[in-house]
Amino acid sequence: MKLNQFLIPLVISGLFCTVSCQKAGLKPVSSTADTAQKIVVVLGSSTAAGWGASTFDSSWVGRLKARIKADGKKIKVINLAVPGYTTYQTLPSGYHTAGRPLPDTNANVTKALQLKPALVLINLPSNDVANGYSDQEFLDNFYIITKTISKKSIPFVLTGTQPRNLAEVNLRNRLKYLNDSLLNRYHDSTNSYFSKLSSDGYQILPQYSYGDGIHLNNAGHKIIYQAFMNNSLFRKILNY
């Protein structure tokens, strides 16, 4: 008997199975379906790096990693955050503004995209204002960063600003203004929790303060973590 006489019944059987499975509403089995690990990249400064939390596990990124592991998700979180960084260090490689920091090619949006992420998280809450950069600089840089990500058809979720015990009332007011500006511009892609952390004078509420007037304690980091877990875009991309 020729080999083709064996193959023909197998092919017919396979076709019948495919058609019958489709009629039953069943999806054909695929060796690549939902088995690939997703990458989430974090861009940011000291808060994203975990400062203020008693341990990294109590930071918002640490909590996020622990939740993903506990849920058995095939997701890897890569944290590129560097304490002290502003929007300038996270700009795409090659950008340069006189008198401002150069992009860090090991921690900027270009590096993030090289890692082929399914999602980029951005947390740059107050250093631009503290360093004397203008509101327009801050917003323009965010636009460049997010546009660079969007060109690759990759979603992002950013955080608004957070209160900081800056000496000048005007600077604290600016943090509130910039938080609202990010929320108005990016809508569902923005986690805004400024009011939860802030006093009437836009300083950090004592129950969320690490004590240095800049960073958040464990409870403050938990607020950021919960904002991500409650974000509809974040949940959709990572199947929560």
By CATH, the superfamily comes out as SGNH hydrolase
- How many helices in DSSP terms? 10
Our Rg estimate from Cα atoms comes to 23 Å
Average pLDDT reading? 89
Biggest sheet features = 5 strands, parallel
Q: Which stretches of 5+ consecutive residues score pLDDT under 50?
A: 1-33
Can you count the beta strands? Answer: 5
| CATH fold node name | Rossmann fold
| Structural class by SSE content | alpha/beta
Strand order of the largest sheet: 2-1-3-4-5
List the helices and strands and how they pair.
Elements: H1 3-23, E1 38-44, H2 46-49, H3 60-70, E2 75-79, H4 109-114, E3 119-123, H5 127-130, H6 135-150, E4 156-159, H7 169-186, E5 190-191, H8 194-197, H9 218-229, H10 232-237
Helix pairs in contact: 3-9
Would you kindly provide a brief summary of this structure?
The chain has 240 residues and is α/β, with parallel strands linked by helices. It has helices spanning 3-23, 46-49, 60-70, 109-114, 127-130, 135-150, 169-186, 194-197, 218-229, 232-237; strands at residues 38-44, 75-79, 119-123, 156-159, 190-191. Helices cover 42% and strands 10% of the residues.
Question: How would you characterize the overall build of this protein?
Answer:
The protein has 240 residues and is α/β, with parallel strands linked by helices. It has one domain (32-237): SGNH hydrolase (Rossmann fold), CATH 3.40.50. It contains ten helices and five strands, in the order αβααβαβααβαβααα. The protein has helices at residues 3-23, 46-49, 60-70, 109-114, 127-130, 135-150, 169-186, 194-197, 218-229, 232-237, and strands at 38-44, 75-79, 119-123, 156-159, 190-191. Strands 2-1-3-4-5 form a five-stranded parallel beta sheet, with helices on both faces. α3 (60-70) crosses α9 (218-229). It is globular and about 50 Å long. The N and C termini lie far apart (54 Å). The model is unreliable at 1-33 (pLDDT under 50).
